[in-house]
Amino acid sequence: MFKKIFSLKTLIVLIVIFPSLLGFVMMTPGVGFQSLRFINSVKKQIKKVMPKGKYVLDGKHPMYNAAAGSIIKKTYVADILSVTDWRNPEESGSEANRKKYVEYAEKWYEKTYAEKVKNHQDIDINSVCLDMVKFDEKAVADLFKPTYVKTGIEWFFRDGLEYLFSSKGNDLVKEARLKQTVIDQGQFINALNYSNHTLDGPEVKFSIGNYVVNAKVWLLNIQQESMRAAASLGLLKDHNIKASDIFWNVKPSDLTAPNYVLAIYATFIGYVLFLIIGPISILSYITFLLIVRIRRKYHA
User: Among residues 147, 126, 120, which one has the least CA distance to residue 56?
Assistant: First the structure.
């Protein structure tokens, strides 16, 4: 039985199709898998520092309408502005892009929480932050590069080959290396020009962007300032929570830094194996079989 399964012919066929199989396996996860690992680690920290049901804004509080709307809306805006590099006004950091990003974030707020705030519904900050993860994924796909949230297969049918066979690939690797880099958190915060009027929500005026891990750590940690202010004014549903009780410190090491560059190279190699080396191997084997059959026919 063992010999029949692993006959020489079967072994040859497996060797011939191996490049295509390996290529398919390497190209499937893509850059999106690295983003997924990062996203899951962010969700884990949100559930840890802002557990469900703990920090809930009380819809019956007289200051609820103004405070809840401002905190949530401005946090979405701060989220997208903090990962944008405003040092290059001719590209990502243009005023036109700033306006576009702010409008996008505000529209997302209108679609998700505006009605709830208007109806004075209790809002759990845990659900807001988890929704912000969805917002990040959609914003990347709509405003930046869908590459970062797509699998290798999805990218292949979109514009993956264009990146593989042009200078765009080198530009993408350069950009990805910057995005996956983790710098000292203090250095990132010092380079970030922002204001946070507690109940008014954070407002980003300038960011060096790119460093997705550092930006997300800052955004998670800044939430506690708003929660302290809410607790001081009795805006939280649980009045037993005091402002002095609210403290957490998410560090870059608490999140899983994505390795975008490795994913890009693996995907590119997968494309080459699947589209070039694999077919050449299969065609060579078929050609060899045809030659053998023809030779046998004429020498029979």
Answer: 126
What are the contacts of 17-20 at 24+ separation with CB within 8 A? 17/278, 17/281, 17/282, 18/281, 19/273, 19/274, 19/277, 19/278, 19/281, 20/273, 20/274, 20/278, 20/279, 20/281, 20/282
Higher pLDDT, 285 or 61: 61
* pTM summary value: 0.87
**Count of domains forming the chain:** 1
Q: Give tens-digit pLDDT for 214-239.
A: 999 999 999 998 899 899 989 999 99
Strand segments, DSSP code E, in the chain are: 56-57, 123-124, 193-196, 202-206
Question: What pLDDT does 4 receive?
Answer: 53
In this predicted model, what pLDDT tens digit does every residue of 257-274 receive, in sequence order?
A: 999 999 999 999 998 998
* Short-list 137, 118, 106, 120, CA closest to 42: 137
User: At residue 19, does pLDDT exceed 90?
Assistant: no
Alpha carbon distance, N-terminus to C-terminus of the chain: 32
Q: What is the SS3 assignment for 202? A: strand
Task: Find the domain containing 162 and state its range.
Answer: 2-298
pLDDT of residue 296: 79
Quote the radius of gyration of the chain (alpha carbons, Å): 26
Residue 233, number of CB atoms within 10 A of its CB: 15
